[in-house]
Amino acid sequence: MGYKVVVVGATGNVGREMLNILAEREFPVDELAALASRRSLGTEVSFGDKTLKTKDLAAFDFTGWDIALFAVGSEATKEYAPKAARTGCVVIDNSSLYRYDPDVPLVVPEVNADAVMGYTKKNIIANPNCSTAQMVVALKPLHDRATIKRVVVSTYQSVSGSGKEGMDELWDQTKSIYNPVTEVPPKKYPKQIAFNVIPHIDVFLDDGSTKEEWKMVAETKKIVDPKIKVTATCVRVPVFVGHAESINIEFEEFLDEDEARDILREAPGIMVVDKREDGGYITPVECVGDFATFISRIRQDSTIDNGLNLWCVSDNLRKGAALNAVQIAEVLGQKALKKG
Ligand SMILES: NC(=O)c1ccc[n+]([C@@H]2O[C@H](COP(=O)([O-])OP(=O)(O)OC[C@H]3O[C@@H](n4cnc5c(N)ncnc54)[C@H](OP(=O)(O)O)[C@@H]3O)[C@@H](O)[C@H]2O)c1
């Protein structure tokens, strides 16, 4: 016996990937509803070897459905997630709306799977920001061994992290540079993204940081340990899928680079590819469609007593969103919504 599952935002980048991952991981689905806006009514989406027609979220009744995987942005989530949750359907949400709510668990199953049980307060579980998800998978096993004091992270984030419109803008702008007849001015991004990098994701805050950077700080504290200090610089790069991060970590205790490599090799969700030779590391194009968080370039930081540097790459639509959401559903199934 399986679950009645709703995928909300099924025509989007994350929604389509959630459908793929539910099928790939053979999540026990008895019935599946694919929802999007009225604009997409009847649009066909794939679920394994089946084709489903999308229904209108505004007209959908969640009564009797077990789990709803939401990927529609904060505005639509605010309107529809509480409605779904009130019917008894457990919402697993990809937007940032509930991540900092003390009554909503923020979960990365490799790190804090037990926190899932906090869902009962609101019937909602939050998925973290894509850049946080892959980073905490890497930090947790190292924190358990040597206690992290401070993290300095710089991100190289792909355009799929800002939805379908971001991917279209990179594609159209790139073509327009080769064929200048059609100019494609920046619309989704504040500056040209093709052949450029932009040190600005989400809105600016009073202290000069951006909301994306703040999210990495606040979410790492909520998921791993409130004592960890994080400082982040988040940058959008002209890559379609796959986020990369350069992470510098300062520990309480000394951690040798070889031991760190061994710890990461054994850790859940991680694949270490770290050969000190040409191409002996992972780049974003190589991680697309994969489940793992890839770690390369593990090395001592000799400028401080207990420091390490590493390079972390993952498919942002998968570990950064869809895969993490499906993993949460799997944990929920094992711990709470047992079937058959
Ligand atoms: N992309 C990432 O790496 C990533 C990572 C973590 C979290 N997230 C979060 O996941 C969510 C979705 O992101 P995405 O990248 O998949 O965006 P996207 O590609 O732009 O897709 C958005 C989806 O939401 C639907 N939608 C939007 N407004 C709606 C409304 N009022 N009613 C019903 N459906 C509506 C769209 O339906 P139509 O096609 O009908 O418009 C589409 O299916 C966002 O909250 C985002 O912040 C994304």
TrEMBL record:
<comment type="subunit">
    <text>Homodimer.</text>
</comment>
<dbReference type="Pfam" id="PF02774">
    <property type="entry name" value="Semialdhyde_dhC"/>
</dbReference>
<feature type="binding site">
    <location>
        <position position="157"/>
    </location>
    <ligand>
        <name>substrate</name>
    </ligand>
</feature>
<feature type="binding site">
    <location>
        <begin position="39"/>
        <end position="40"/>
    </location>
    <ligand>
        <name>NADP(+)</name>
    </ligand>
</feature>
<dbReference type="GO" id="GO:0009089">
    <property type="term" value="P:lysine biosynthetic process via diaminopimelate"/>
</dbReference>
<keyword id="KW-0457">Lysine biosynthesis</keyword>
<dbReference type="InterPro" id="IPR012280">
    <property type="entry name" value="Semialdhyde_DH_dimer_dom"/>
</dbReference>
<feature type="domain" description="Semialdehyde dehydrogenase NAD-binding">
    <location>
        <begin position="4"/>
        <end position="119"/>
    </location>
</feature>
<protein>
    <recommendedName>
        <fullName>Aspartate-semialdehyde dehydrogenase</fullName>
        <ecNumber>1.2.1.11</ecNumber>
    </recommendedName>
</protein>
<keyword id="KW-0028">Amino-acid biosynthesis</keyword>
<dbReference type="Pfam" id="PF01118">
    <property type="entry name" value="Semialdhyde_dh"/>
</dbReference>
<dbReference type="GO" id="GO:0009097">
    <property type="term" value="P:isoleucine biosynthetic process"/>
</dbReference>
<dbReference type="GO" id="GO:0050661">
    <property type="term" value="F:NADP binding"/>
</dbReference>
<dbReference type="InterPro" id="IPR012080">
    <property type="entry name" value="Asp_semialdehyde_DH"/>
</dbReference>
<comment type="similarity">
    <text>Belongs to the aspartate-semialdehyde dehydrogenase family.</text>
</comment>
<dbReference type="GO" id="GO:0004073">
    <property type="term" value="F:aspartate-semialdehyde dehydrogenase activity"/>
</dbReference>
<feature type="binding site">
    <location>
        <position position="99"/>
    </location>
    <ligand>
        <name>phosphate</name>
    </ligand>
</feature>
<dbReference type="InterPro" id="IPR036291">
    <property type="entry name" value="NAD(P)-bd_dom_sf"/>
</dbReference>
<feature type="binding site">
    <location>
        <position position="316"/>
    </location>
    <ligand>
        <name>NADP(+)</name>
    </ligand>
</feature>
<dbReference type="GO" id="GO:0009088">
    <property type="term" value="P:threonine biosynthetic process"/>
</dbReference>
<dbReference type="GO" id="GO:0019877">
    <property type="term" value="P:diaminopimelate biosynthetic process"/>
</dbReference>
<dbReference type="GO" id="GO:0046983">
    <property type="term" value="F:protein dimerization activity"/>
</dbReference>
<feature type="binding site">
    <location>
        <begin position="11"/>
        <end position="14"/>
    </location>
    <ligand>
        <name>NADP(+)</name>
    </ligand>
</feature>
<dbReference type="GO" id="GO:0071266">
    <property type="term" value="P:'de novo' L-methionine biosynthetic process"/>
</dbReference>
<keyword id="KW-0486">Methionine biosynthesis</keyword>
<feature type="active site" description="Acyl-thioester intermediate">
    <location>
        <position position="130"/>
    </location>
</feature>
<feature type="binding site">
    <location>
        <begin position="160"/>
        <end position="161"/>
    </location>
    <ligand>
        <name>NADP(+)</name>
    </ligand>
</feature>
<dbReference type="InterPro" id="IPR005986">
    <property type="entry name" value="Asp_semialdehyde_DH_beta"/>
</dbReference>
<feature type="binding site">
    <location>
        <position position="236"/>
    </location>
    <ligand>
        <name>substrate</name>
    </ligand>
</feature>
<dbReference type="InterPro" id="IPR000534">
    <property type="entry name" value="Semialdehyde_DH_NAD-bd"/>
</dbReference>
<feature type="active site" description="Proton acceptor">
    <location>
        <position position="243"/>
    </location>
</feature>
<comment type="pathway">
    <text>Amino-acid biosynthesis; L-methionine biosynthesis via de novo pathway; L-homoserine from L-aspartate: step 2/3.</text>
</comment>
<comment type="pathway">
    <text>Amino-acid biosynthesis; L-threonine biosynthesis; L-threonine from L-aspartate: step 2/5.</text>
</comment>
<keyword id="KW-0220">Diaminopimelate biosynthesis</keyword>
<dbReference type="GO" id="GO:0051287">
    <property type="term" value="F:NAD binding"/>
</dbReference>
<keyword id="KW-0521">NADP</keyword>
<keyword id="KW-0791">Threonine biosynthesis</keyword>
<keyword id="KW-0560">Oxidoreductase</keyword>
<comment type="function">
    <text>Catalyzes the NADPH-dependent formation of L-aspartate-semialdehyde (L-ASA) by the reductive dephosphorylation of L-aspartyl-4-phosphate.</text>
</comment>
